[in-house]
Specification:
CATH class of one domain: Alpha Beta
CATH topology of one domain: Rossmann fold
CATH superfamily of one domain: ANL, N-terminal domain
Strand content: 15-25%
Distance between the termini: 49 Å
Helix content: 25-40%
Number of strands: 31
Structural class: alpha/beta
Bound molecules: 5'-O-[(S)-ethoxy(hydroxy)phosphoryl]adenosine
Radius of gyration: 25 Å
Shape: globular
Length: about 700
């Protein structure tokens, strides 16, 4: 890699709006300059050698990484690969909770703090400061033991799927790890999703037990989690799916007010509800970790796809753990006993929270910080206050959050002592160079490496990212592949493209953290990820991420974004079909098409084009007006979740379609983005007047 002509620009006063951003390179620093004792990978030569070894001798490479885990029975084979099916570390048995918790207690680190948690509320009953809880590895072992025993008493056994819908509280970590302890799979649903989403996912997973809380705190308000679960349970019952038990954490005090239920009571149909403090609080903390096969399911995590139905991404035990412990260690330079406090601000309801709030740091015996609430409660400097008060050393967040912080003003971070920080990370979408530079200057104070980590729910962990001591960074680029990842940019025929040509992002060989399936839908697994691009030499399928990207002349990857019909709103994936289905479920709507448009803070925002049912409007005495637009927005928020609420709803007389009846989304995207001239080929349009009308109609 050439650094000529760029290293000297690093950290200089060059304007951040430069269009020559690609040439701006920040070489890695000495570990000590950023506050680390050493880097795990300390030079470009070392990275190159490591990556080369990982592709030339993948079995040897991964055998060594897997040896960092604690196996009850050692594996006999590293990989059995029959594309697209991989089995990693076969013959081996282990337990995920044991690897995150028990083994540290067994090796004498029971008193080390595993988890630091801060609640959102401040003032009032919480006194001057927020509520803070610290759980040592020993305490976490006992709590997961109790919770596992409580779940077992509710009939949960190995192989079951437990649905978890909770606020960001320690008990969420406990519930996740308790499932792993028992050998049950967890399916965590983000607390911002609506009842319909809970029901859909629980039904798909065949889940009979739900763990939730009476509520959670968010921006000073209470999120009604229990009420949402009630509604979900009722909807499931109507479909003939009985949830046997709901375990409810008393977080906001409904049980204390006595306005709810008594533990064990059947509340909705035959569904029994139990308070956490009775069921978990009264259980024994001693519960052995189940001995699981390496390929046993560890969890399902639902993610949006280009069809209406979310996909249950399936991860198994040994491979996921081996990959996540490695990526967490190398990307964030995690090390035990080095005074590190790692904070990933993602919700555990997303893959980032699974891999880098919980599994990654805990496997590495590093203390992980969890914060319950919003970044602007009670003020817009809450995150900087948390970093300063707790002495956070590595901080990992999303570009959408960084853009929000930029908008809130430089004075807010400037007013806090952020000197504990050693490293910064971002994830979720491409970061614009301006935001990268702001993060680097105002949060990292030009001292901390910034790691832009590219990956997906499906990849389990980072697949392209700088290793902080080895790989120089360029604002906006996720740089180079993780050791063990054979990433490439190819065309539709699978041929690798020369530098600076945009193409498809693929991974050409299996890696341990890869998804093993889409739950209950083999066809979708094969066609979504393995059906599009093949090795031109052998015809074997490549993994395709659905992202477009290019590599520059240094081999650095620049992710351009999704090429399918999913939209990233504030870093959260939403399927256009999901939102469209919600819209057409409203009686006013005949047809809907949803597209993403660039948005300064959210990255993308949703614009919905809707055709109405005149008969319904007439019957109800309604008009195509702003009130109806508002109502449709609220309807989507209710059906899918607030993050899916369209930024803009636009009414159209008809939607532009090809002769085969496919909605021309690219064209709608241009219309929505206000592109002046329609440059795309419209000869297949069935009704040109529709386009004209839409464009005339612009607000
Ligand atoms: C996008 C989140 C550019 C990408 C971990 C991917 C990114 C999708 C980056 C997966 C990044 C994630 N740079 N794009 N650093 N990280 N993406 O499953 O489009 O919620 O396919 O996983 O996010 O989103 P998911």
């Amino acid at each position: 890699m050439s650094t000529t002509g760029s290293a000297d620009q690093a950290g200089s006063a060059r304007g951040i709006d430069s269009t020559l951003v690609e040439n701006r390179l920040f070489p890695p620093r000495d570990a000590a300059e950023s506050g680390f004792a050493r880097w795990h990978v300390g030079s470009m030569a070392e990275y190159r050698a490591l990556h080369r070894r990982s592709v030339e001798d993948p079995e040897g490479f991964w055998r060594e990484e897997a040896a960092r885990l604690n196996w009850f029975r050692p594996f006999t084979r590293v990989l059995e690969w029959s594309a697209p099916d991989a089995k990693w570390f076969t013959g081996g048995t282990l337990n995920a909770c044991h690897n995150c918790v028990d083994r540290h207690v067994e090796s004498g680190f029971g008193e080390t703090v595993a988890l630091v948690w801060e609640g959102e509320p401040v003032g009032g009953p919480w006194g001057a400061g927020p509520e803070v809880r610290r759980l040592t590895y020993r305490e976490l072992m006992i709590e997961t033991g109790r919770c596992a025993n409580a779940l077992r008493a509710l009939g949960v056994t190995r192989g079951d799927v437990v649905t978890i819908y909770m606020p960001m509280v320690p008990e969420l970590a406990v519930a996740v790890l308790a499932c792993a302890r028992l050998g049950a799979a967890h399916s965590v649903i983000f607390g911002g999703f609506a009842p319909h989403a809970i029901a859909e996912r629980a039904a798909d997973a065949g889940s009979r037990v739900i763990v939730t809380a009476d509520g959670g705190y968010r921006r000073g308000e209470i999120v009604p989690l229990l009420a949402n679960v009630d509604e979900g349970v009722r909807a499931l019952a109507n479909q003939g799916h009985v949830v046997n038990h709901v375990l409810v954490l008393d977080r906001v005090g409904a049980s204390a007010r006595g306005d709810a239920f008594r533990s064990g009571e059947a509340r909705i149909g035959p569904t029994r509800y139990h308070w956490w403090r009775d069921a978990v609080g009264g259980a024994s903390g001693a519960c052995p970790c189940a001995e699981m096969d390496s390929e046993d399911m560890l969890f399902l995590l639902y993610t949006s796809g280009s069809t209406g139905k979310p996909k249950g991404i399936l991860h198994t035990t040994g491979g996921y753990l081996a990959f996540v412990q490695m990526t967490a260690r190398l990307t964030f330079n995690l090390a035990p006993d080095a005074g590190q406090l790692f904070w990933c601000s993602a919700d555990v309801g997303w893959i980032t929270g699974h891999s880098y709030v919980l599994y990654g740091p805990l496997m590495n015996r590093v203390t992980t910080l969890m914060y319950e609430g919003a970044p602007n409660f009670p003020r817009q400097d809450r995150f900087w206050d948390i970093i300063a008060r707790h002495g956070v050393t590595q901080f990992y967040t999303a570009p959408t959050a960084i853009r929000t912080f930029m908008k809130w003003g430089d004075e807010l971070p400037a007013g806090h002592d952020l000197s504990s920080l050693r490293l910064l990370g971002t994830v979720g979408e491409p970061i614009n160079p301006e935001a990268w530079m702001w993060y680097h200057r105002h949060i990292g104070r030009e001292r901390c490496p910034v790691v832009d980590t590219y990956w997906q729910t499906e990849t389990g962990g980072h697949v392209v990212t700088p290793l902080p001591g080895a790989i120089g960074t360029k604002p906006g680029s996720c740089t180079l592949p993780m050791p063990g990842i054979d990433a490439a940019i190819v065309n539709e025929r699978g041929e690798e493209l020369p530098p600076n040509r945009g193409g498809l992002f693929v991974i050409r060989r299996p890696w341990p953290g890869m998804l093993r399936g889409v739950y209950g839908n083999r066809e979708r697994f094969v066609s979504n990820y393995w059906g599009r691009v093949k090795d031109p030499a052998t015809g074997a399928p490549f993994y395709f991420s659905a992202d477009g990207a290019r590599r520059d002349t240094d081999g650095y990857f620049w992710i351009q974004g999704r090429i399918d019909d999913v939209i990233k709103v504030s870093g959260h994936l939403l399927g256009t079909m999901e939102v469209e289905s919600a819209l057409v479920s409203h009686p006013a709507v005949a047809e809907a098409a949803v597209v993403g448009v660039p948005h300064d803070i959210k990255g993308s925002a949703i614009v919905a084009f809707v055709t109405l049912r005149p008969a319904w409007l007439a019957r109800e005495g309604r008009a195509a007006d702003d009130a109806l637009k508002k109502e449709l927005g609220a309807h989507v928020a209710r059906e899918v979740g607030a993050l899916a609420r369209p930024e803009q709803v636009r009414f159209a007389e008809g939607l532009p379609k090809t002769r085969s009846g496919k909605i021309m989304r690219r064209l709608l995207r241009d219309v929505a983005a206000g592109v002046e001239k329609i440059t795309q080929d419209t000869t297949t349009l069935e009704d040109f007047s529709v386009v004209a009308r839409l464009r005339d109609d612009e607000e």
